[in-house]
Amino acid sequence: MKLHILKHSHFLLWCFALLVVQANLFADTNDSLLSIINSSKSSDSTRVIAIVDLSYAIAEEYPDSAFSLLENVESFYKQKSLPALHAKVLTAKSYFLQNIGKYPEALQLLFEAKKQFESEPGLIDDTLYLSDYVQVISSIGVLFYNTEKHEDALAYFEQGLTYLQGINAKYPDVSFAKEYFRFNLNTGGVYTKIEAFDKAELFFTKALQYLDENDLRSYSMLLNNLSIIARQKGDIDRAFDLNRQAIEVWKRAGIMRGLAQSYNNLGNCYVYINDFANALESFNTALEISRDYGSDKSAIIALEQLSILYDTLGKHKLAYDTHVKYKALSDSVLNLEKIHLVTQLELQEKFDRRMSETRLKQKQLESEQRKRELIYTLIIVLIASGLIIVVLLFYLQSSKSKRLKLETEKSTLLNKSLGLEKTKLEEDLEFKNKELATNVMYMIRKNELISRISEKLIKSKLVFKKENQIIIDEIIRDLKLTTDDDIWTEFEIRFQQVHNDFYNKLNERYPNLSANEKRLCAFLRLNMSTKEISAITHQSINSLTVARSRLRKKLELDSDENLIFFLESL
């Protein structure tokens, strides 16, 4: 058999590079898949489904090749922005990683697949992709269950059920029985694992409603599970009834391993009611079926229970012999599990090694391609650079004088702009200083006027009639309420808004200044004259002269230093 690579499908050139050498090993059943992949009539979705199916077909014998095929198909569909197809490839990759025990990597791929489905509006509401989306959610839940993260598993199974209910409401004529069955069965399994038997029974019963009547395996398995739950809850009659139904269905389906499990369960029901004779018969039947049909796990359970029963009945020799058989079979199965684990680790190592080699070859090919592209690019760049340099030299020479002229003009304009800005700032500061002084004088004079009026009213109050004296008292009270008692506090707040660092610097350098001296510094910083300060503070000019002299000493100023300039420099 030969692989025919189509010229129009460039991505297949790399996808099949690893498989061509093994083409003669493929079974004839894969010919139809290859013809679909190579056909020019195949759509993108048809082709990717065929590639995924082909990867599953060769996965057991060539897992690394199958995975490489999917990886390269994935990179192609990433570029084409086809989220549904990309998600399908991611789900297949996750399946391969789960088989070799790489659970974290598999879970990460499933999360990415879910993200792809949800990235395009309306995609998860399309019945064409519903089954794939449900599979992703279910697979995430199963992975969490397999890694003992039961709460996370339940969250995803419940999310799946909620999603199905929304879709069912939108498409009432479409049957979603298979999907409902899967999620209810899985949810019941988790609740059984964590021993929440009431909830487990509820979801197993719901699963029965969606079960295909021809699916005898699932039907008998559900009956068996419901029987175990009934026994755990103490409803032994129902447990017996469900167990016998399960046995009948197993027999009708011809599934002997399931039949062995149900006989073990029947034996446990008899033990529950202390009917040891029937319990022995049930476990022996389960053991006989298990040996005939190679069900080691059921045989181990049967041998263990028989050993316990024989010991309970006082048949210690028989109990010992049975326990020896149980231990030998159990150890044998354990050894097989260890061999399986070692094989799985070997597969992981081989898979990682082959994937590393594949990626290395891919990187080498990409590196060589980049090297060739780089050489071509360098040649083009060198030629272009030569032309650009010639043009730039001419341009630089002609623009040098223009640039110098522009810089000179810019410098002149900048100096003028800075000068104007400085003048404006000084004018603004002067205006704010005057405004601050005027505001303080206004508040002081307002208080004085209010005080004088209040005093006159108090003196004249007795002249008025008694009924008018009450009104006079209210007027006096209102006038006093309008008096600004914290005039100096208001002044200092406004002063700091204009000169925000003045008091901080003054306190830092001269912490021993009194409040009156700090206030005097503030007046002087506003460039107020002694006469103006006297009018505001009601101090005499002589007192202010003495205060200024005392302030100069505290500020340690020389006789030739100007006090106002010094304060302005702070």
What is the name of the CATH architecture of the domain at 214-314?
A: Alpha Horseshoe
Strand content: under 5%
Enumerate the spans where pLDDT stays under 50 for 5 or more consecutive residues: 1-29
Helix share, percent: over 70%
Characterize the structure shown:
The protein is mainly alpha-helical and 570 residues long. Among the domains are: 214-314, Tetratricopeptide repeat domain (Serine Threonine Protein Phosphatase 5, Tetratricopeptide repeat, Alpha Horseshoe); 499-568, Arc Repressor Mutant, subunit A (Orthogonal Bundle). It contains 23 helices and no strands. The termini are far apart. The relative contact order is 0.03. Residues 1-29 have low confidence and may be disordered.
Feature tags:
single chain, 570 residues, mainly alpha, Serine Threonine Protein Phosphatase 5, Tetratricopeptide repeat, Arc Repressor Mutant, subunit A, 23 helices, 81% helix, 0% strand, elongated, disordered N terminus
Structure described in brief:
With 570 residues, the protein is mainly α.
Topology, pairings included?
Layout: H1 10-15, H2 31-38, H3 44-59, H4 63-79, H5 83-99, H6 103-119, H7 127-146, H8 150-170, H9 177-193, H10 197-209, H11 216-232, H12 236-253, H13 256-272, H14 276-293, H15 296-312, H16 316-460, H17 466-481, H18 487-498, H19 502-509, H20 515-525, H21 530-537, H22 541-554, H23 563-568
